[in-house]
Amino acid sequence: MSEEEPLTSNVRPATDALITVRIIKSFPYRNVKNLIIKDIDLKSTTPAQLFTKVITEINTLGAFRPFRNVVYDSLKIYSQAHGSKSMNLVINFDNDKDLVLLEKGESISDKGLWDLGVRNETEISIFNWEEYIEYKKNPKEEW
After folding, report:
1. Which family does the entry's similarity section mention (predicted)?
2. Which residues of the chain have pLDDT under 70?
3. Residue-range domain boundaries for the chain
């Protein structure tokens, strides 16, 4: 009988998770920069609190200076650990109803991220909702 190793995404508790936030500056030009957030409590952190934390990081870290001229107002799950990823390299177009955590600055729920399906090693996108809708109508990539 062989013992299988647990998946690395399942080893960390929900109160000490790691997530990646994909900061999207431009959809057509695919300008995306990742922010790794460690030691986040998924059970007590709400989407609004995560949003505030990410905006603070964008406005204080020098690496995100080029990303400061976008009005970010939405959060959406891009992918889960060990799950399938979207064919689109910028954002996941699928299932807005279930994957959007914050839309136009309005929290979809006051529940914690855990209750909304965010797990350890989840990737979440932060972006401007109006630009997302425009890009979704015509997902043409520019150079």
Report:
1. Belongs to the UPF0538 family.
2. 1-2, 6-11, 83-88
3. 12-137
Contacts of 131 by beta carbon, 8 Å cutoff, 6+ apart: 26, 27
Per residue, what are the HEC states of the chain?
Answer: CCCCCCCHHHHCCHHHEEEEEEEEEECCCCEEEEEEEEEECCCCCCHHHHHHHHHHHHHHCHHHHHHCCCCCCEEEEEECCCCCCCCCCCCCCCCHHHHEEEECCEECCCCCCHHHCCCCCCEEEEECHHHHHHHHHCCCCCC
Torsion of CA 82, 90, 93, 111, to 10 degrees: 60
How many whole angstroms from its chain centre is CA 55? 12
Tokens 């690395």 identify what position?
Answer: 8
Over residues 29-56, the pLDDT tens digits come to 999 999 999 999 999 999 999 999 999 9
What is the CATH T-level fold of the domain 12-137, as seen in this structure? Ubiquitin-like (UB roll) (3.10.20)
